[in-house]
Amino acid sequence: MRSIRPTAVRLAAIGLVSALALTACGGEDDPKAADKPATSQGADKGGDLPELPADLTDRLKEHGIDLDEWKDGGWKNWDKDQWLREAEDFVNPVIKDLWKPERMDKAKDPVQTIDTKAGSADAGVSDPDPAPVEAVEESKPYWKHAAPVGKIFFDTPEGSAVCSGTIVKDPNNPGKSNLVWTAGHCVHAGAEGGWYRNIAFIPAYNKDAKSPEALQNATAQEIAPYGQFWADWVSTSGEWIEGTTAATAGASYEYDYAVLHVQPESGSKSLEETVGAALPVDFDAPSATEIGTMGAWGYPQAPPFNGVQMFKCLDKPVRLSLTPSAPTMFRIGCTMTAGSSGGGWFHVKADKQTYLVSNTSIGPAGSAGWLAGPQLGQGAEQLFLQMSEKYGKS
């Protein structure tokens, strides 16, 4: 990583990396916590989240969807009448073995991840663009150094897509969390569309950082050391769902966050039990002018990256304002590209613990020098606690 900050900040960055490395368990050869396993809905609009129906088949029929037809390819119907968009309409039945290595390889970053001119915004208070910070690859094996970080796969009308995500602690289910933090645009298309489909999370994806070529012959355990976890409920902000189109600067990116509740494609253990790691979320983090070094982790895919290896950037954040009425976003120097969207941003608090404090949302159009993520305030905390209270309890 090319250092662009004073010594004190570099030392803080070292502390962040060390703290994150302590979140994973296990020996050198195999994830200790993985008695390896051989889904999230709803937008937060200030009220209670709808109950998750016990009978998914009946629920699908309410929308004119036959479960067998859906699994046989009916999910590919993106007609407006079939593209569910409201909070209570999310469905994501497990289609076993859908995400095979060859299909994962074809999944690309969602175009809107980086395609924005947000850097030219002059609304509110924005600091000058930060100097680029070269992204560096995470140490391997990933499950040992950054076990809570993983890759998210999902389907869109344009084809299969990818984002990044982070396992976060569930206050109502300590030690047994099934919650994953990511970006809103990784689960919902915003005002012009609905919920994406076949959303699955793979923690510590490609644990040994194999190249795309080597990954073609990798074992299932090398690709997904803890297995695949499908979202059975997702919550994102009402501002994101009702915002402008995702290709437009200022598309409610200040509220571009989401929480997934997941279930294993096979097996019964919770995500946190399986992986042995999860991070707390800090909803009271200082502003960009007061917080120290932050780190962003993810799987960037747009060139010059390949989408199968995990990278990170550490920097002191500055402010980015898109609209005067919305919260100011965090912005750091970072050369990661699309595909890293949804990846967690972390900082170390006075208690020496590493906390998730934001997620990658946007970057500059036509280049890669910085990333911006939302501040997680009261609305994000309410969304998170509603998810925990309704779906986190054993």
* Amino- and carboxy-terminal Cα gap: 43 Å
Number of strands: 15
Average pLDDT over all residues: 82
Order of helices and strands: HEHHHEHEEEEHHEHEHEEEEEEEH
From the structure provided, what is the oligomeric state, counting identical versus distinct chains? single chain
Strands side by side in the biggest sheet: 3-4-5-8-7-6
Largest sheet: 6 strands, antiparallel, barrel
Please bin the fraction of helical residues. Answer: 10-25%
Radius of gyration: 19 Å
Q: What is the beta-strand fraction?
A: 15-25%
Q: What is the tally of helical segments?
A: 10
Form type: globular
Class from helix and strand fractions: alpha+beta
Which regions are unreliable across 5 or more consecutive residues at pLDDT < 50?
A: 1-15, 24-28, 32-52, 112-122
What features would you highlight for this structure?
394 residues, alpha+beta, six-stranded antiparallel beta barrel, five-stranded antiparallel β-sheet, 15 strands, 18% helix, 21% strand, globular
Detailed description of the structure:
- The chain has 394 residues and is α+β, with helices and mostly antiparallel strands.
- It has ten helices and 15 strands.
- The strands form three sheets. It has a six-stranded antiparallel barrel with strand order 3-4-5-8-7-6.
- Strand 3 and strand 4 form a beta hairpin.
- The N and C termini lie far apart (43 Å).
- The N terminus is likely disordered.
